[in-house]
Design brief:
By secondary structure, the protein is α+β, with helices and mostly antiparallel strands. About 30% of the residues lie in helices and about 35% in strands. Helix 3 packs antiparallel against helix 6 and helix 4 (about 55-65) packs across helix 6 (about 90-110).
Length: about 325
């Protein structure tokens, strides 16, 4: 097994195909001993920094900490002070325990005892720019997937959880299931609910945001380190934004009108030129060629209900003083 792939796996950075590759390797009964040895060797190669491992693994580490005697949790220095709990020695010992737990977990949760093949089959729903879709998940939940977005989920959810990975934007109407929390992981933030409706927007290069329409959700960084983890609970009408660079979350109120994309309504609130063109590219599946520059910064406010691109550009061109030409999927804008 490639060590770099293992590192990506434990840092929660694998593609769905890479996850399946690792799980196949873990599930092979002929490789079980080798699996644990290689995993242990990988963890032994880590330096003294706590790796950015997945949130569930951090929970396991905390459980280990609670089980160990006090003398194992710290080492005395000659000056009488104690070293931090997560010393290199302890981390390696804890890692072996975590690895054993994870291997067992994968064997019992994802694979059949009588069949070494992977039983987790993943579905990928993907919309290119200019296309939206609505579909039902295996548990009965409804998803509205925005343009330039993708959602990955298993064909059949496990008995204990419903976990999905989103890139882009989607609105979820979650079927209530008290035994199986519904978790959407998107751009470093995990949103968990039991039965509710909420919107997740997490396009690459933009801050991830979660807007709650009904029910209640828990929002937390997907790879939160135990000592710095932050968990928020949203009420209807509240929105959480994940600031990835600072690894922090903030709560604000939102207007339900901001989710009008579900009904095909395009809305701009004090949008800049870059924001307008980016949204139009995503909404209509086009690219822009710009000739000249705006005479002043844009501050666009507008609402377009199921309008075609030409009508939108006619309105914007009149207000912002530009001409345009549409040639299939390319739009040329010329400022006057």
């Amino acid at each position: 097994m490639d060590v770099e792939l293992l590192e990506k796996f434990f840092r929660n950075q694998c593609t769905p195909e890479e996850v399946q590759q690792v799980l196949r390797w873990m599930s092979d009964p002929n490789e079980k001993d080798n699996t644990l040895r290689e995993l242990e060797a990988y963890w032994n190669s880590l330096d003294t920094d706590i790796p950015e491992i997945a949130h569930d693994q951090q929970k396991i580490l905390r459980l280990i900490q609670a089980k160990l005697p006090a003398s194992s949790a710290s080492d005395s220095k000659p000056n009488g002070r104690k070293t931090p709990f997560f010393t290199l020695t302890f981390l390696k010992v804890a890692a072996v325990i975590v690895i054993t737990f994870l291997a067992t977990f994968f064997f019992t949760q994802y694979f059949s005892q009588s069949d070494s093949s992977v039983s987790v089959e993943l579905v990928t729903r993907e919309n290119p720019a200019g296309q939206k879709s609505t579909f039902q998940l295996p548990d009965g939940s409804i998803v509205k997937l925005n343009a330039e977005s993708s959602l990955v989920y298993p064909v059949v959810f496990t008995d204990t959880s419903r976990v999905l990975r989103l890139k882009g934007e989607a609105f979820f109407e979650v079927a209530e299931d008290l035994q199986r929390p519904f978790t959407v992981v998107a751009q470093g933030v995990a949103t968990t609910a039991l039965g509710t409706s909420f919107n997740v927007k997490a396009y690459p290069g933009e801050e991830a945001s979660i807007a709650l329409v009904s029910g209640k959700v828990q929002v937390e960084p997907a790879n939160a380190v135990a000592a710095n983890s932050q968990t928020l609970y949203l009420e209807p009408g509240e929105s959480a934004t994940y600031y990835q660079n600072a690894d922090s979350l903030g709560i604000t109120e939102f207007n339900l009108e901001d989710l009008a994309w579900r009904e095909g309504t395009l809305i701009f609130h004090h949008a800049s030129f870059a924001e307008v063109t980016r949204e139009l590219e995503r909404w209509y599946g086009v690219s822009f060629l710009i000739q000249g520059t705006p005479s002043q910064p844009w501050d666009v406010n507008g609402r377009f209900n199921n309008e075609n691109l030409e009508n939108v550009l006619l309105n914007l061109g009149y207000a912002e003083r530009f001409d345009f030409a549409i040639d299939e999927k390319q739009v040329t804008i010329t400022f006057k």
